[in-house]
Design goal:
Strand order of the largest sheet: 5-6-8-7
CATH architecture of the largest domain: 3-Layer(aba) Sandwich
Helix content: 25-40%
Number of helices: 10
Bound molecules: flavin mononucleotide
Shape: elongated
Distance between the termini: 49 Å
CATH topology of the largest domain: NADH Oxidase
Number of domains: 2
Strand content: 5-15%
Oligomer: single chain
Radius of gyration: 23 Å
CATH class of the largest domain: Alpha Beta
Largest sheet: 4 strands, antiparallel
Number of strands: 8
């Protein structure tokens, strides 16, 4: 089978596959009139799957992406814009969690959804560490406090910038202001030499947060933890991060202890319409 092929018995020559191709790699075969891939264009293919996904008669095949791995869109699952708006507005950063663990399959489904986040040149560079055990999450919060204590001794300027004094004091009083007693943690990382790593990972983290929200699972960005994961060797080793890896952010995860009957106000959005 060639890299890009079509079933000529089904193809209606609509050329939607060619139009949606981001790099315009498909053209009309002068002899047959069917779409074909430009010679030598395989390497330029992003493998975004648009040509296969958009074909109205399911006649396109892309060799590295078997058609049976494409999910059928179920239009009965469509939601209204009002529903979608409320869903996004009701996402909150959750900082109080029930001790009840989130089921493994739910955590798996949440992280799997991040695979559908857009990424620059469709590189899909984001990798994850899922910390499922609440004991390990607690241990990592403690390691972050240890790092902060070292920072206070060795780098007063940074210690001040990160307000570590209050976080350490809270920990000593039994308050976990680092990972908020969350039972689980999702950490995104990637090769630090990748372009767009901040953007790709921020989008993936947002997908994760929304996927959690849709399942009634609360999430909160773990900012202090992320600083630590990029600086403190014992934590990097615990996470299995290599020297070339940058930790892009983490989310605490768990069932929310409280529900929010209101959506908080936001400051006026600055938008310039040109
Ligand atoms: C990059 C980033 C880092 C954050 N780090 C923390 C954190 O370390 N601890 C925390 O409690 N909240 C953290 N937050 C959550 C923000 O405080 C929160 O998004 C903001 O207060 C708005 O509340 P909302 O998310 O409920 O709308 C972080 C958010 C972002 C985007």
């Amino acid at each position: 089978m060639s890299f890009y092929s079509i079933d000529q018995t089904k193809c209606k020559k609509c050329f939607i596959c060619a139009e949606v191709c981001p790099n315009k790699l498909l053209l009309k075969d002068k002899e047959t009139g069917f779409p074909k891939m430009r010679i030598g264009a395989e390497a330029a293919c992003l493998q975004c799957g648009h040509c296969v996904a958009a074909c109205p008669v399911d006649c396109v095949q892309l060799e590295p992406m078997p058609n049976d791995h494409f999910l059928q869109v179920d239009s009965s699952l469509s939601i209204s814009s009002e529903q979608a708006d409320q869903f996004m507005r009701t996402r909150r950063s959750i900082r109080s969690f029930k001790s009840k663990p989130v089921e493994h399959d739910t955590l798996q489904a949440i992280v799997d959804l991040t695979n559908y986040a857009p990424s620059a040149s469709h590189k899909q560079p984001v990798q994850w560490v899922m910390v499922e055990s609440p004991e390990s999450v607690r241990e990592m919060a403690e390691m972050t406090i240890e790092w902060m204590m070292e920072l206070r001794k060795n780098n007063r300027e940074l210690a001040k910038k990160y307000s570590v004094a209050g976080l350490i004091a809270g920990w000593k009083k039994g308050q976990d202001l680092i990972l908020r007693g969350a039972p689980h943690l999702a950490i995104s990382y990637m090769d630090k030499n990748k372009t767009w790593h901040d953007t790709d990972s921020a989008i993936a983290l947002s997908y994760l947060e929304l996927a959690a929200h849709s399942r009634g699972v609360g999430a909160c960005f773990a900012g202090f933890f992320t600083y630590c994961a990029n600086d403190y060797m014992p934590l990097r080793e615990k996470l299995g991060l290599q020297e070339n890896h940058v930790c892009c952010g983490g989310h605490m995860l768990g069932y929310p202890k409280f529900t929010y009957p209101r959506i908080p106000m936001r400051k006026k959005l600055p938008v310039n319409w040109l």
